Amino acid sequence: MNIMATAVQKNSMKPLSNGNNLIVHREVKEIQNIDDYTNIGQCIDSNYTEQFEQVPNENITEQIESEAEPEIDIVINNVVCSFSVRCHLNLREIALTGMNVEYRRENGMITMKLRRPYTTATIWSSGKVTCTGATSEDQARIAARRFARCLQKLGFKVHFNNYRVVNVLGTCSMPFAIKINSFSERHKEADYEPELHPGVTYKLKDLRATLKIFSTGSVTVTAPSVAGVQAAIEYIFPLVYEFRKERTAEEIAMLHAVKKRRLAGGISVDVYNGPCKGENDNTEQTECETEDTW
């Protein structure tokens, strides 16, 4: 093989690769001047050694780590918001005249549903309304105003007031499994009770966020806003990265099934950035979305 390599290079061919995408940059003239073919192997070995010495191992490691940097998709599953209409609501009248309404007399409240965006509102006689089921903060606000418009059409003097996002539920899947036993032992602020819950509970007081970390690499986050969910994931990633492990075939299959269910019910933060509106919004819906109509 060494004789063939020298013969090819004598015919003014390009320098050969050593199989690791590292080209030997030794000049061809030095190989052409070799008369004793028994020393060719030593010459080529010295060339390889010099080439590896020129490329530090740290640079190679950094390049591999930068190329293997994983991407994590955060899926927002639920945004809970609340507002007040500042008037007394007759629940019985709403149940008789309203649409998509369920009256729960034993609980003293009414549930009303919308198809677009697909949300559910819980209405109390005091005028307080809680809206759940939205997959973004913009969707939650649109749904809240549409619920208020529905109550206004039923004859109540509605004033849209005290709107706020109460809670956001987000989920993500790490590109690796997690050794939650070692993680909980290292971080004392983590709460792990395997008899009660299969995941580790990790609370962030600054972000007011609560994380549930599972051994499969799945992480569930509850925070006051979408930005808080993203900040919590960015905070916890380097902590769990130290305790990563390879997934089993069963865990991979289970994660694929869970991911399909999540994508069917939620919207990824990386994909969704703008407000979510219906394709055929009429004038009545547009008025509900503006502040000037109230």
UniProtKB/TrEMBL annotation:
Keywords: Cytoplasm, DNA-binding, Nucleus, Transcription, Transcription regulation. This is TATA box-binding protein-like 1. Belongs to the TBP family. Pfam families: TBP. InterPro entries: TBP, TBP-like, TBP_dom_sf. GO terms for biological process: DNA-templated transcription initiation. The keyword NADP does not apply. Its main location: cytoplasm. CDD domains: TLF. It comes from Photinus pyralis (Common eastern firefly). GO terms for cellular component: cytoplasm; nucleus. Coiled coil: none annotated. The keyword Phosphoprotein does not apply. GO terms for molecular function: DNA binding. SUPFAM superfamilies: TATA-box binding protein-like. It is found in: Cytoplasm; Nucleus.
